[in-house]
Design brief:
The chain is of the alpha/beta class. It has 18 helices and 10 strands. The protein has helices spanning 2-46, 57-63, 101-106, 126-139, 157-163, 198-201, 210-215, 239-252, 266-277, 302-310, 318-328, 330-340, 344-354, 362-368, 372-384, 390-398, 419-427, 449-466; strands spanning 66-70, 76-81, 86-88, 174-177, 185-190, 216-221, 259-264, 282-288, 404-410, 432-436. The strands form 2 sheets. The protein has a 7-stranded mixed β-sheet, with helices on both faces. β7 (259-264), α9 (266-277) and β8 (282-288) form a beta-alpha-beta unit. α1 (2-46) crosses α12 and α9 crosses α16. The protein is globular. Residues 56-62, 70-75 and 107-143 have low confidence and may be disordered. It comes from Psophocarpus tetragonolobus (Winged bean). Pfam families: Abhydrolase_1.
Length: 467
């Protein structure tokens, strides 16, 4: 019996690998074809097109307002020009180095494989500065939103609400609940990938006790590019951009000095980065399904390693197939955003009709309200691009005993495997890991929001009493 099961399992793996190879070869060709389709439509509707990452990396980055600066030794750096300074950007090489059937056969992207984005000193001459100024000036001629992005009132609320107030132009949307009196403690909530602050405000906020609501100020942020926050088409949505926006429009704007953080999935990476930048301010970290994939020592391409862990190019299980589509195919994912996000009002209507309005749609709203540019860059630059930094972040938090660390994970999570949380605990031994049976990536909160709210209160209160 055991031998039969072994043979059956091996046969299933072979079938999965064979079907996956054929399927992704076809998808490689489809994505290559869609590249020309979108360029043609962009040129027709916008009188211009933006180079994509399946073409020359240099062209894609410089046309988006960035430029590659070569250094001695053949290394390259990516810089951008702001109004006051040149700034080095943290760009994941998985954006422009994703081997595929088309790229290997045509050799169109082989010269991009050696591009690196290491920090260091560099020199930029005045000619490059003038060229960057010109490119950044031309960026503003692109329509906001683009033709393939949704232009409904909800998705573009950041444009209309900020146009009338120069003081808040470009500010993140913060869903907040504040006590009417006293000096409350602050809690910052950070959502995960293609989600929004509704993930917290519709689940945790209503279920906190009256005592907690009188003691804590709740600040749930829509990350740059998601929900009702700005979705600038020229942004590359790097880690530094996300952090600077949170610092400016959450911490500084709301005068947050000392705070707790509750973060889900991709938001856990931003939470760890904030804890490292503000070690004396963060009282506790509550991380839900943190995407931490330890990179083996000696691995020459950590970002590529993590991308293959997140998106293994397999058709089974279905979640692996969905993740592979999101990570590997720039144009297929743009097509999906065109069909789903741009028409989200129709899908929400059909969902309410089919379920007779018995299903709460706040998760759908968070899922739909983003642009392809925001999702594509955030996925690569945060999940994959921080592969070489996560270990140092966790080590820094480990050395800060004043920060309490609690980790939640659903045992049935098919998006982020539960092993990721145990790996975090290996780096931070004092971290408390709680794994819940029969819960997945979403139901770790949704469906048990009352219990989760009570658990959060215990974490915050124990931290306060300890201090």
């Amino acid at each position: 019996m055991g031998r039969a099961r072994s043979v059956l399992a091996m046969s299933a793996r072979v079938v999965n690998e064979t079907v996956s190879f054929v399927t992704f070869c076809v998808l490689d060709l489809v994505d290559f074809f869609l590249c020309f389709v979108f360029k043609g439509v962009d040129l027709w509707l916008e009188a211009d097109f933006r180079p994509c990452y399946c073409s020359s990396a240099k062209e894609a980055i410089t046309r988006s307002g960035k430029i590659l600066v070569s250094e001695q030794g053949g290394e390259s750096k990516i810089v951008s020009l702001s109004s006051t300074k040149l700034q080095l950007e943290d760009i994941s090489d998985t954006l422009y180095s994703r081997p595929s059937l088309v790229s290997e056969v045509s050799r169109l992207t082989l010269h991009n494989h050696d591009l690196k984005t290491k920090r260091g000193t560099f020199t930029v001459n005045t000619t490059i500065v003038e060229m960057l100024k010109g490119k950044i000036g031309r960026q503003q001629t692109h329509p906001i939103p683009r033709w393939s992005d949704c232009d409904c009132k909800l998705c573009t609320s950041w444009i209309s609400s900020h146009d009338n107030n120069t003081n808040t132009r470009g500010s993140l949307f913060v869903n907040s609940e504040c006590p009417t009196a006293g000096a409350p403690q602050d809690v910052v909530f950070i959502h995960g990938f293609i989600s929004s602050s509704l993930f917290w405000s519709q689940t945790v906020f209503p279920n906190l006790s009256g005592e907690a609501k009188s003691c804590y100020r709740l600040l749930a942020v829509d990350l740059l590019g998601f929900g009702r926050s700005p979705k600038p088409s020229e942004s590359l949505y790097t880690l530094s951009e996300h952090l600077e926006m949170i610092e400016r429009w959450v911490l500084e704007a709301h005068k947050v000095k000392s705070f707790h953080i509750v973060a889900h999935s991709l938001g856990s990476i931003l939470a760890l980065a904030l804890a490292v930048k503000h070690p004396q301010s963060v009282k506790s970290l509550t991380l839900l399904a943190p995407p931490y994939y330890p990179v083996p020592k000696g691995e020459p391409q950590p970002t590529q390693y993590v991308m293959r862990k997140v998106a293994p190019r397999r058709v089974w299980p279905p979640m692996a197939f969905g993740a592979s589509l999101a990570c590997w195919y720039e144009h297929i994912t743009r097509l999906i955003c065109l069909l789903i996000c741009k028409n989200h009002r129709l899908w929400e209507f059909l969902t309410k009709l089919i379920t007779r309005n018995r299903v709460r749609t706040f998760l759908l709203e968070g899922f739909f309200c983003h642009t392809h540019n925001a999702a594509w860059h955030t996925l690569h630059n945060i999940i994959c691009g921080t592969a070489g930094k996560m270990g140092s972040y966790l080590d820094a938090v480990r050395e800060n005993p004043n920060c309490k660390v609690t980790i939640y994970h659903g045992k049935n999570d098919e998006v982020i495997p539960v092993e990721c949380s145990y790996e975090v605990q290996k780096r931070i031994p004092r971290a408390k890991v709680r794994v819940f049976d029969n819960k997945d990536h979403i139901t770790i909160v949704v469906g048990r929001q009352k219990a989760f709210a009570r658990e959060l209160e215990e974490i915050w209160n124990s931290t306060t009493n300890h201090n």
